[in-house]
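Structure ticket #2291
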Amino acid sequence: MRIAILFVGLLLTLKAFACPITITNDTGQKIIIIDPRGAEAIFLDQNETGVIDPTIIHALMKYLQNEKLDFYYPNHTTHPNSYYKKYRLTEKYCVDDPKESELTVSQITNFIQNPSDRFKVEEFYPLQKIHDHGHH
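Resolution: structure written out below.
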């Protein structure tokens, strides 16, 4: 019986938990930031600031689950409205102080070479089309 009550209590706490990140686009390009685990995205023009809240599936996971955000940049070589994934920011744990979750894109890209105990960044490169100039 106690196990059943504990289980029901645990199920009642299942919900998305807020751990927002405020990002300022200090680059010279428009960017799109997407939560790959959820249904949230923001578009940031130059010098704009936005808040995105990566999905955390349970409040108990706030300090255990990595949050991920994908950063998409314009790829004008293929199409004027085409974007490609350039960075993936991983936040290893959430903090309660919102001031500690305010980042600029320049700070985020700095984590590529200098990851912190809380943040790391992977860099991606756009796919290049292969032109076949074979003889027919």
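Closing remark: The two ends are 77 Å apart (CA to CA).
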